[in-house]
Amino acid sequence: MVGAKKKVMSYEEVRRQRVEENKKRMEDLNLLKLAKHLRPQPNPSSNPSPAKPRARRPAVLAPARRSSRIADQPSVSYRERRDLLNRVYASSEVRQYAIHRAEELQSTLDPEHPSFVKPMLQSHVTGGFWLGLPSLFCKTYLPKEDEMMTLIDEGEEPSQTKYLAGKTGLSGGWRGFAIDHELVDGDALVFQLVSPTEFKVHIIRANEVGGDSEKENQDEEEEEEDEALEKGKRAKAKAAEKENKNEEDDDLDSTRRRSKRIRTGRK
């Protein structure tokens, strides 16, 4: 026990001696003063100045820089044509009626110029703006390579669109045609090929078709009401005629009975 205590005391003594020696060496080398001078001294007189608010520069409305290759082309508008949540979907009845009207119109066109009916879907007018054409029609009548096609509306206004032969459809330019002519879901278009790279486009609008069908339904209801009124009038006339006939028969019977009584009284 005493030996262990002596060892602890000797260790503490050795440690203290080393600390004293290191301190003396640092004083001899002047390290304490150097460390004190190297330590940054706080300056109580210097207060940080408050940050000045930056003055915003006025916005300069200048046209965006564009490549010279597309400088002459109209700028691209990234604003959506309509809110997708407000899409209007055509009913199956309106869609079928528009197709029927388009087929009737197609039957009146010159058969020398091939034609086809294309019903409009949301993907054609508000979604992808890509219009696929009938494959057999494309392989039979349209160019075998990509070509610019002209779409001529009913007002003789031409529009350019890109025909992709490999995909048998219209791509670039179809979006502008759909927007300019306000095509919606349910419309039916009749494409008539008047030249190898030119379509005459006839538009049957779904909203107009709906109005026509409602008008026809209203006309049918009015005709049914008129027919019902006419039947009622005829029924009343027959009833009145029957009543008059019954009265005449009663008068005739009473006359006969009266004459019979007179003859019996004379006898």
TrEMBL record:
Pfam families the UniProt entry points to: B3
Sequence ranges of Pro residues compositional bias:
41-51
Question: What superkingdom does the record give?
Answer: Eukaryota
Q: Where is the composition biased (Basic and acidic residues)?
A: 9-30
Keyword Transcription attached: yes
Q: Name one GO cellular component term.
A: nucleus
Note down the stretches annotated as region Disordered. 1-75, 210-267
Q: Which residues form a coiled coil?
A: none
| Gene3D superfamilies xref list | DNA-binding pseudobarrel domain (2.40.330.10)
Q: Where is the composition biased (Acidic residues)?
A: 217-228
- PROSITE patterns reported in the protein's UniProt record: B3
**Keyword annotations from UniProtKB, A to Z:** DNA-binding, Nucleus, Transcription, Transcription regulation
Biased-composition ranges, Basic residues, are 257-267
Q: Name one GO molecular function term.
A: DNA binding
Check the record and name the InterPro entries matching this protein. B3_DNA-bd, DNA-bd_pseudobarrel_sf, REM16-like
Where it sits in the cell: the answer is: Nucleus
TF-B3 domain: from which residue to which, for each copy?
A: 116-207
Q: What is the designated name of this protein?
A: TF-B3 domain-containing protein
The species is: Linum tenue
